[in-house]
Design goal:
single chain; alpha+beta; five-stranded mixed beta sheet; 6 helices; 5 strands
Length: about 170
């Protein structure tokens, strides 16, 4: 038997394979409906969070002040070395597009770009984190050129955290 004949499928085998592929595609689409995406802008600085909020004219979703404990009481005594100011798109954008969440964050700070740059120039560390809770291991990230240019213009680095919600056995 030649190699080509060994790999040829019968009509029934082709039909079964086609059905399995279609089922797999539907299952992947179904799992993707459970994916969650949000973005968070993090600013670490030595000043008070109220100062950052005033400069950016935005109220954060979460803050930790310089000196705040970072571990549960009774554990190690680890304290924040800087203020951490966080603005999140979680629960504010219904789309599951990374681009939509990034653009929402960028729109929030767009009117305060000189003040954001002032914070950065005075030692603030800034970045955007994309949080992706994924039920499918078939993910890709694509950002358009305009969004990449805005990130560069705002001097914001980007981190993408993907947390897979299911186990290998579920595939």
């Amino acid at each position: 038997m030649d190699i080509k004949a060994r790999w040829e499928l019968s009509e029934d085998e082709r039909h079964t394979t086609s059905l399995n592929v279609q089922r797999s595609e539907r299952e992947i689409e179904r799992l993707c409906e459970f994916n969650e995406v949000w973005a968070s802008l993090y600013i670490w600085h030595d000043s008070d969070p109220e100062n950052i909020s005033e400069l950016l004219r935005i109220n954060p979703d979460e803050v930790s002040r310089k000196g705040d404990p970072l571990t549960p009481e009774g554990r190690w005594d680890v304290r924040s070395r800087r203020t951490c100011w966080i603005l999140s798109s979680e629960g504010k954008i219904e789309q599951d597009s990374i681009e939509a969440h990034l653009n929402w964050i960028l729109a929030q700070v767009s009117g305060s770009l000189p003040n954001l740059r002032g914070l950065q120039d005075s030692g603030a560390r800034t970045k955007i984190v994309i949080h992706l809770n994924s039920w499918s291991r078939f993910q890709h990230v694509e950002l358009n050129v305009e969004t990449l240019l805005l990130l560069a213009r705002y001097r914001l680095s980007l981190t993408i955290n993907v947390h897979y919600q299911n186990t290998e056995a579920e595939y």
